[in-house]
Specification:
0% strand; mainly alpha
């Protein structure tokens, strides 16, 4: 039977010492840049909505936007990172124990030239096949010609995003997080700049050109840190001595390892393709409403996963060194912290969806009707935010082991099938909100499967204990949503309603989570309790 860790067990305590302080500092810097990138992303979407609203032209661009979305998932956030971060971690462990040729430089020499060749070829094929790609992604789209033009512009990101992902994985493997965390700041700056300069003259093609420029900027912002990392030859985070021999970096990159990661990443992104395929026959603007709603609703998820971006290399290097207990504690803590952030954010999104969309987008070509339609979709998306976050955290823990694992891909394919079937059934009745609800259903199913399987791996998570903690957080989120909804709707001004609703949600969530003895909240309030006890 799986051992259930009590809420305040010493084994589950946070990591102390210099490594813990280093992780806290890295998480803080990553959080700051993640927030900056997210705010610039919102500014980008606001500019896009102001210039173009939600019509057939924006639908055409968003079909082309599928290319950078898939490329970001496959080459930056999930696929390539799941392969390369463990590979660089193994190389760094090997470097620390052996003299002779540098295994990190050997890894780069063996992988980077081939990767660049494959990415360049893939981008060229996509440019040539753009008409066929648009026809498959959105059959019957009114402005297919515009979508083809935008797809050819965004196809350059296949190469630039691939190189960005390679640099990010290498830097994170070395324990450097500042430059990788800044890539979306650079990316959104490029898009916003071209929107402001060329938006009136080029229309939505300016945004597509901005994607191409932003991809180049993402590479350039990382090059100085990458040069220093490879020149210094000094790992940042030290780990305990090995308990078992490590595998070679060449073995870590074999096809048997890469294939399940690629299938998992593509399956996860295919959810968006299914949404746009189902929404293409709906009235003009449906794809745009789905896009705006998803971008805003996913902000809590993005913030919740910023800690996992920092701890992913730590887990990979702990497993490379044979310290499975350290890896297990780290993953369990990540699940609770990430669940806390995303559920608190989801409660505000559900309760204040119309006010959020009104404040962010309702101006220029974006009408009151667009606000209402987008808010309805966003509430449905929010129901799947916890599932999205759990998939992100658990996938990193699965792929940290640098060995072939098909279970995450199978779980993702099962969730994808549920999304497709539920979406096909829901769209004739509920339209775009039905598509978002199907997305929430599919990703939640995937998360439950991954959580169940995590108790049967080397790290052997305490599934019952983690599930109990998450269930308590869901109860806290329910209470926060109810109070936030009441506070927001009692206030007519949307900005003030957001302020009142969010504040009340934070207070209620914290109080309920503490009363239910969620571990992280117990640890948070423990020093205060001790001070009051000694003061008596």
């Amino acid at each position: 039977m799986t051992k259930i860790v009590p809420p305040l067990a010493p084994a589950a305590a946070p990591e102390l010492g210099s490594s813990g302080r280093l992780l806290a500092r890295a998480a803080f810097l990553t959080a700051g840049l993640t927030v900056a990138g997210a705010l610039l992303g919102l500014l980008r979407d606001q500019a896009f909505a102001h210039f173009f609203g939600a019509d057939t032209d924006t639908d055409a661009f968003l079909v082309a936007w599928t290319v950078p979305e898939v490329a970001a998932t496959l080459l930056i956030e999930d696929g390539l990172a799941f392969v390369l971060v463990p590979a660089f971690s193994l190389a760094l462990v090997k470097r620390a124990r052996h003299t002779g040729p540098d295994p990190v430089r050997a890894l780069v020499a063996a992988t980077l030239p081939r990767l660049m060749l494959v990415l360049a070829a893939g981008g060229a094929v996509l440019i040539a096949a753009a008409p066929a790609v648009v026809a498959v992604l959105a059959p019957g789209l009114p402005r297919a010609d515009l979508a083809v033009d935008c797809t050819r512009l965004t196809a350059t990101c296949v190469l630039t995003f691939g190189l960005t992902g390679y640099c990010s994985a290498a830097l994170r493997g070395h324990g450097r997080f500042l430059a990788p965390a800044s890539i979306y700041v650079a990316y959104n700056v490029g898009i916003i700049a071209l929107l402001l300069l060329l938006g009136r003259a080029w229309g939505v093609r300016a945004a597509a050109a901005g994607v191409a420029l932003g991809g180049v900027l993402m590479i350039l912002v990382q090059l100085p840190a990458l040069w220093h990392s490879w020149r210094d030859r000094e790992p940042v985070v030290a780990l305990p001595a090995a308990r078992r021999p490590t595998r070679g970096t060449a073995q870590a990159l074999r096809l048997a390892l890469v294939a399940p990661i690629v299938v998992f990443a593509l399956s996860r992104q295919t959810q968006v393709l299914i949404e746009r395929f189902l929404a293409a026959p709906l009235p003009a603007g449906a794809i745009s409403h789905l896009n705006y709603a998803q971008k805003v609703a996913q902000m809590p998820m993005v913030l919740s996963l910023m800690l996992c971006t920092v701890t992913f290399p730590v887990i990979a290097r702990a497993l490379a060194a044979g310290d499975t207990e350290r890896a297990r504690r780290r993953v369990e803590s990540d699940l609770i912290v990430a669940g806390t952030i995303v559920l608190l954010g989801a409660s505000v999104v559900v309760a204040c969806a119309p006010q959020i969309i009104q404040v962010l987008f309702q101006r220029g070509a974006f009408t009151v009707h667009d606000t209402e339609a987008t808010a309805d979709v966003m509430r449905m998306y929010a129901l799947g935010l916890l599932g999205q976050t759990l998939v992100g955290v658990l996938a990193r823990s699965y792929f940290s082991e640098a060995r072939p694992l098909w279970f995450p891909a199978c779980a993702m394919l099962s969730g994808l099938a549920a999304t497709a079937v539920a979406g096909a059934l829901a769209v004739p009745v509920w339209g775009a909100p039905g598509i978002a609800g199907a997305n929430a259903l599919g990703i939640t199913l995937t998360a439950l499967m991954l959580l169940w399987g995590s108790g049967r791996r080397r790290t052997a998570l305490s599934v019952r204990w983690v599930g109990g903690q998450l269930a308590r957080l869901v109860v806290a989120a329910g209470g926060a949503t109810a109070v936030c909804w009441w506070g927001a709707y009692e206030t007519p001004n949307p900005v003030l309603a957001l302020t009142v609703g969010a504040t009340s949600a934070v207070v209620v969530f914290a109080v309920v989570a503490r009363l239910l003895r969620v571990r992280e909240f117990c640890l948070l309030f423990r020093p205060v309790t001790r001070k009051l006890w000694h003061a008596r």
